[in-house]
User: What shape does this take?
Amino acid sequence: MAVMDLSGDMIEWQQEQAPVPYRAALAEMEARNSAISAGEASELVWLLEHPPVYTAGTSADPAEMLDPRFDVVETGRGGRYTYHGPGQRVGYVLLDLKMRGRDVRRFVHSLEGWVITTLATLGVESWSVDGRVGIWTRDTDGVEAKIGAIGVRVRRWVTMHGFSVNLSPDLSHFSGIVPCGIETLGVTSLAKLGIALSPAEWDAALMDTAPGFFAALSGETE
Assistant: This one.
């Protein structure tokens, strides 16, 4: 499937039904990054889930790996430790920033806004916090909790990695790490908040709000 951004460029959307092993996805992203940079492939938004895995960003502190019960993979993205697994939808966003202003900060801010806007369409208020990586909301007890993660890498001005949102994962799996280095706040999900949503429904909501993401990325909303 392909969709058009605001400038008329075609962006490939790839939606996986079965879990994709993390190492295989990482290798595919790296290959696609090179192909996009060389002008040999289109830009890509890749939506998928992984079997249970812990991933380490470039700032990961070994002391925050509490229980390596799953495979631990070093990724090259920014950030610290993150968990991926069934029930969590991951969005890998591979865009050529050479054609989009070469502004990494704007890309990250636009990505956060895309997730926040999509959650809002589902009735979930969420936000980002300066100095604290991720997307946050109020848990069932009213305390702030993480519902989504953001982690990116830019190579040859082409973006890699992206975001993840907790639809209905096993939240106990997060206890093996200090998620993104934050010990004092917990993790929640749409399911815990009483919202039953399939991966296909989440993907459709993302596609509906994609024009706002590309507008923000181009600076048209500022």
